[in-house]
Amino acid sequence: MKLDPVTITEILATSGAGAAFLKWARYAYKKRKIEKQRKKQRDERIDESAIKIQAIYDEMISAQSGSIKEQVGQVYDHVKDLDKKINEVIADQLAIRSMSSDAIFECDETGRCVDVNSALCKMFGAQREEMLGYGWGNFICDEDKSRALEEWADGLKTNYRIYSSYHIIHGQTGRKRLIKYHAVIARDSQGAPHKIVGKCTSHNPE
User: At residue 122, what are phi and psi to the nearest 5 degrees?
Assistant: First the structure.
């Protein structure tokens, strides 16, 4: 005979063991239902907290982004002003150098001449273009040329200052002149030269 659920429940309710089982089953059902409700409420609270945290985080990021953009703009303006001032200083230095009565030269990190002023050109009897690179070496007397160039190259490797002398043949008069020079070498943290500035003097001027 096939029993329906209602009949089974009535049979269990009329017996002692059945009544106890039925009571436990109802308790277990209610407990599971309560646990599900609590889990749902807990998940809802977690979701609500996560939304609030995300909103606070987004607000912080938005505020920081605005602050960072403002700071970047200020730094950019400062760099522009600094670059302008540096260019002004360089222009002033170039103007002073060009008008100086001292014979001044400038070289790059390889030791090649990149600039000379009019006083140095006059001392050598040369045009500016003739002095650039290693062109100044063409004016050195043959008996001094090898030594002078070697001293220059060695000085770039080891020294922060170079003192030396050599004789030149004046480009316009053809007369022999003694030239002494003093160069200051700016080096980086690794000791490599990146700029050389020097001054020449003539000890038997025209």
Answer: -65, -40
Structure tokens at 40: 């749902």
pLDDT one-digit tens code per residue, 133-176: 999 999 999 999 999 988 888 888 877 788 899 999 999 999 99
Q: What is the dihedral of CA 153, 158, 162, 166, to 10 degrees?
A: -30
State the DSSP code for 203: S
- Residue-by-residue DSSP string for 34-103: HHHHHHHHHHHHHHHHHHHHHHHHHHHHHHHHHHHHHHHHHHHHHHHHHHHHHHHHHHHHHHHHHH-SSE
Fold of 102-202: Beta-Lactamase (3.30.450)
Q: Which two tokens stand for residue 162?
A: 């170079």
Domain ranges of the chain: 5-75, 102-202
pTM for the whole thing? Answer: 0.51
